[in-house]
Amino acid sequence: MIERMPFGRTGHESSRALFGGAAFFEGTASDADRVLDLLLEYGINHIDTAADYGVSEKLIGGWMGRHRGDFFLATKTSARDYDGAKASIARSLERLRVDRVDLLQLHCLVDPEGWEQAMGPGGALEAAIEAREQDLTRFIGVTGHGLTAPTMHLKSLDRFEFDSVLVPLNYPLICLQEYGEALEKLRLACARRSVAVQTIKSIARRPWPGTERSASTWYEPLTEQADIDRAVHWVLDRSGVFLNTAGDRELLPKVLDAVSRHGRGEGPSDATMHELVTRRAMRPIFPIEAAAPSND
């Protein structure tokens, strides 16, 4: 079984691995059933999806009749205005077949103009706060992609008491000095405020080198179990962070297997990770090309 720890100040003990609902951007009920069996086998008790993840909310909604009590359920809205966010929240609850989610997140809030709209009068944050007041969600979070995510999250935390943040984290990214320093500032701020820190892109290898793709992630992922082990264990060695599984169902068993074995030995050193980067020609996946979707 995968270890658990407090998800910030929510009072919930979440598995260190959170199921990334982007894996259901496409899929069928049969696909969902197979994934559910795997999650229950490993003791995953936290789901992270979004309104923008294709049929993800609908497929996860198929689990909720029998398994709502088994999962901390999180979704996201990309709307920046009050009306759009309110409508998005209502659609998400309908698709998920629930009266309330545990965590509602403002999705990919890193663009300065969009940030000002979402956080200002008549913005999406007002709709999220109203949803909490109406018991449609218990907690409110913010997510981000790209190199500015840690800095923008710090700005968001100064504006509002979010319960969680979500940021990219992998070894090539942390080697970028400015990103690494900003992420450490965010981590320390979240630790002081008991804000949960979720991470994505743990097994990203590099941007796809061509048009042919062998996985449903928008970046080329690591695929060998030993490589995934190193990348996943390196992330989980960071104190207090959660790891969102990659948006590919075929890779999910390998990621969960790696997570389940974390802590059984000494974690990978910087020298070990540098060797992996060199051998697999890894490099940062940001900045994201404009056409790339904002999911994991």
3D structure, described in words:
41% of the residues lie in helices and 18% in strands. It has 296 residues and is an alpha/beta fold. The chain has one domain: NADP-dependent oxidoreductase domain (TIM Barrel, Alpha-Beta Barrel). Helix 6 (149-159) links the parallel strand 7 and strand 8. Helix 2 crosses helix 3.
What is the count of helical runs? 11
The total tally of domains equals 1
Second-tier CATH architecture = Alpha-Beta Barrel
- Mean pLDDT value: 95
Low-confidence stretches: 290-294
Q: How would you write the strand order of the largest sheet?
A: 3-4-5-6-7-8-9-12
Summarize the structure.
This protein has 296 residues and is α/β, with parallel strands linked by helices. The chain is 41% helix and 18% strand.
Features:
296 residues; alpha/beta; TIM Barrel; eight-stranded parallel barrel; two-stranded antiparallel ribbon; 41% helix
Which helices and strands appear, and what pairs or packs with what?
Elements lengths: L3 E3 L6 E3 L1 E4 L8 H14 L3 E3 L7 H12 L4 E6 L4 H15 L4 E6 L5 H8 L4 H10 L3 E7 L5 H11 L4 E5 L2 H4 L2 H17 L2 E5 L3 E4 L11 E3 L3 H12 L4 E4 L7 H9 L9 H10 L17
Parallel strand pairs: 3-4, 3-12, 4-5, 5-6, 6-7, 7-8, 8-9, 9-12
Antiparallel strand pairs: 1-2, 10-11
Helix pairs in contact: 1-2, 2-3, 3-5, 6-8, 9-10
